[in-house]
């Protein structure tokens, strides 16, 4: 990409041009291009003039902006080297691009290297002693011939020493996952619909069809998807027992909220058995005699195979998912609020697995391989975490990245022989649509750009939104013209809210420590975003401005299903302090009414709304049923929300008396977004959503040694 931009530095290179030139035979999402540009900028820093070396031209593309010198020279072995020197006073001063190298034997090789002025270090093999525990001491040299004997014997001993050293070296090399790579990607399904993998019995993969609902199965070699008839509401596929006989099922039974019941299903015979309630994740023990489960309030408990003898072993709190019991039975790993954690099988030694690992602020799904290595997902890519850093070492392991590129991966599980990974691979692309009351259909809005978290300024002249999936905050005129880029990766704004006076935009982003935090940025694009509570260690989500702009209500819950210790708070923009709203424990997603008299909030189980009368301090209940993405109408009479159940729809409920009405039918629709989906209102209270234009299928990834 850098070479292409330099070669065409006299003009702007459009995104389409770059995608066609760099990935001519592949479908590559624009988010990958955005990320590559970000990484190049990070490496190049800035020119001494202060401007970016690679400049973004809004709605047009990118341009290489600084002077370049081309220096050609011929090496003795007919080597042609072109050196590109970027005039910069920063760290990167020379960028060396070695073109085709023609050796004396006529072979052609290609090498591209960035000279970052970092001295290279030779690889030094340490001296190896073949005696255990021996301490080297000074001694007189002895004749090997006198000690060992004949030349033939000396040769045999020498060969044996070499063989031992070679065996030890190969053991280190071939057992360490830096020498693993994905050699082939083979699709198992091909319908493109969103899926969530549960488990495999070795011959078939069991998964949840997110769009149509229900659990299905497919052969590990691909073929027809077959529905699994379960007879329970909103089933989600879980883990398969080690003997391949029983599938765990979690019944959602409430839409977007935490699951309410855990079931076991016999794959032969079809018998189904209720095990427990209020379970969000569950996994089998390696012997198949027990299960470890996480509850909706952040507890971890263990039970027998039939559901008996359930007992709590730990209470880490937070939103727990992706439980995985190690093959040796000693360790349980799980994701807590988007970060990997680990616990001993008896509930002791609860700790974060990768503290300070800066590759990604989120690590969601993970699963053990048969040999005890661990696959997990970070930033949509699959990583492998070895048992230890190197052969014979007890130091903490370092994750090794296995997948690259624009495809977003999720739910990796290993094949029974450990030679393959089965995972969901997704290309992300959306189309902004708005509900048209005349046709009762959703139609493209703002030319159908792929954006979410769309909000409008109170003066009706501007709109702000976050591009999907690359997560960049933009501001534009109401018709979408003259966009201004407000943020850059790795910042990924969510839950965007415009201040009443139009001067500030509040949003949520995840810090390097994995904590959701609220920041504000000037809406004219000047300055940088800053946190409202920079020293706060609790999660801050779902900001909502008071109508006078003096306060921001927010939730301390990091996610649906998080610890019941979450509550609602109000941040005072003058005093810079936050106070807890009365009786708000276990509530989330606060929304200030347009007249400032009420604050609405969702319950933690997402099955109803609560309404706080700020004058009396009393809460009342609004019976919405399953609720997500609540928004007040501009006149303050109604609260719109998504009812994402077996018969999904956009509903609204009247705040004064709880009367409910259906606004739009979402049956059979495919929608997407950072939080699975998103819904907002335009200035006339017409619902807006992000229609899913991407694909999602299950793939088989073959692993091989380098």
UniProtKB/TrEMBL annotation:
GO molecular function, one term: DNA binding
DNA-binding region: 1-66
Residues covered by the OmpR/PhoB-type domain: 1-66
Keywords: DNA-binding, Membrane, Transmembrane, Transmembrane helix
PROSITE patterns given in the database record: OMPR_PHOB
Listed Pfam families: PD40, Trans_reg_C, WD40
Transmembrane segments: 152-172
InterPro entries: 6-blade_b-propeller_TolB-like, OmpR/PhoB-type_DNA-bd, Sig_transdc_resp-reg_C-effctor, WD40, WD40_rpt, WH-like_DNA-bd_sf
N-terminal signal peptide: none
GO BP term (any one): phosphorelay signal transduction system
Record-stated family: Belongs to the TolB family.
Name of protein: Tol biopolymer transport system component/DNA-binding winged helix-turn-helix (WHTH) protein
Taxonomic placement: Bacteria, Pseudomonadati, Acidobacteriota, Terriglobia, Terriglobales
């Amino acid at each position: 990409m850098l070479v292409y931009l330099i070669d065409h530095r006299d003009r702007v290179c459009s995104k389409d041009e770059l995608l066609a030139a760099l990935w001519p035979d592949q479908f590559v999402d624009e988010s990958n291009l955005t990320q590559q540009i970000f990484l190049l900028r990070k490496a190049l820093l800035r020119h001494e003039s202060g401007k970016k070396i690679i400049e973004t031209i809004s709605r047009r593309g990118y341009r290489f902006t600084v002077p370049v010198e081309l220096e050609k020279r011929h090496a003795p072995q007919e080597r042609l080297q072109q050196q590109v020197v970027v005039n910069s006073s920063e760290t990167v001063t020379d960028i060396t691009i070695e073109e085709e190298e023609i050796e004396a034997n006529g072979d052609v090789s290609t090498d591209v290297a960035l000279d970052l002025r970092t001295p290279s270090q030779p690889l030094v093999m340490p001296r190896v002693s073949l005696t255990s525990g021996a301490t080297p001491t000074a001694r007189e040299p002895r004749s090997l011939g006198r000690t060992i004997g004949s030349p033939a014997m000396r040769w045999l001993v020498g060969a044996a020493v070499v063989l031992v050293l070679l065996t030890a070296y190969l053991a280190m090399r071939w057992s360490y996952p830096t020498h693993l790579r994905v050699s082939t990607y083979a699709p198992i399904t091909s319908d493109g619909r969103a899926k969530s993998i549960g488990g495999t019995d070795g011959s078939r993969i069991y998964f949840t069809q997110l769009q149509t609902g229900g659990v299905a199965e497919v052969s590990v070699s691909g073929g027809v998807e077959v529905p699994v008839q379960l007879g329970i509401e909103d089933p989600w596929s879980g883990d398969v027992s080690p003997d391949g006989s029983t599938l765990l099922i979690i019944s959602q039974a409430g839409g977007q909220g935490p699951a309410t019941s855990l079931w076991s299903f016999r794959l032969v015979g079809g018998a189904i058995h209720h095990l427990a309630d209020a379970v969000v994740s569950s996994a089998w023990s390696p012997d198949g005699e027990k299960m470890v489960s996480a509850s909706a309030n952040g507890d971890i408990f263990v039970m027998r195979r039939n559901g008996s003898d359930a007992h709590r072993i730990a209470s880490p709190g937070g939103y727990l998912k992706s439980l995985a019991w190690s093959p040796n039975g000693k360790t349980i790993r799980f994701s807590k609020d988007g970060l990997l954690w680990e616990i001993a099988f008896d509930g002791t030694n609860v700790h974060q697995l990768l503290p300070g690992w800066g590759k990604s602020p989120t690590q969601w799904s993970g699963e053990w391989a048969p040999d005890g290595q661990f696959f997990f997902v970070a930033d949509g890519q699959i990583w492998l975490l070895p048992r230890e850093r190197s052969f014979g070492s007890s130091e903490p392991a370092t994750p090794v990245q296995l997948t690259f590129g624009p495809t977003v991966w999720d739910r990796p599980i290993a094949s029974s022989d450990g030679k393959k990974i089965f995972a969901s691979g997704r290309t992300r692309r959306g189309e902004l649509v708005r509900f048209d009351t005349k046709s009762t259909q959703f139609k493209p809005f703002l030319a159908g750009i792929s954006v979410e978290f769309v909000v409008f300024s109170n003066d009706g002249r501007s709109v702000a939104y976050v591009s999907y999936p690359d997560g960049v905050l933009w501001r534009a005129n109401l018709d979408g013209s003259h966009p201004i880029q407000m943020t850059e990766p790795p910042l990924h704004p969510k839950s965007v809210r415009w201040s009443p006076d139009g001067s500030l935009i509040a949003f949520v982003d995840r810090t390097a420590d994995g904590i959701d935090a609220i920041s504000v940025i000037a809406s004219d694009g000047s300055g940088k975003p800053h946190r409202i509570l920079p020293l706060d260690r609790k999660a801050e989500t779902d900001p909502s401005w008071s109508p006078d702009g003096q306060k921001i209500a927010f939730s301390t819950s990091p996610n649906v299903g998080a610890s019941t210790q979450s509550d609602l708070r109000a941040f005072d923009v003058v005093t810079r302090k936050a106070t807890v709203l009365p009786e708000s424990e276990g509530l989330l997603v606060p929304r200030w009414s347009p007249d400032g008299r009420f604050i609405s909030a969702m319950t933690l189980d997402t099955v109803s709304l609560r309404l706080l009368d700020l004058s009396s301090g009393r809460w009342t209940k609004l019976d919405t049923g399953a609720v997500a993405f609540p928004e007040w109408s501009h006149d303050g009479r109604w609260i719109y929300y998504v009812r994402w159940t077996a018969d999904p729809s956009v509903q609204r409920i009247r705040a004064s008396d709880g009367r409910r009405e259906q606004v739009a039918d979402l049956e059979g629709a495919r929608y997407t977004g950072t939080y699975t989906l998103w819904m907002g209102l335009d200035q006339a209270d017409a619902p807006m959503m992000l229609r899913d234009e991407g694909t999602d299928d299950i793939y088989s990834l073959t692993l091989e040694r380098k």
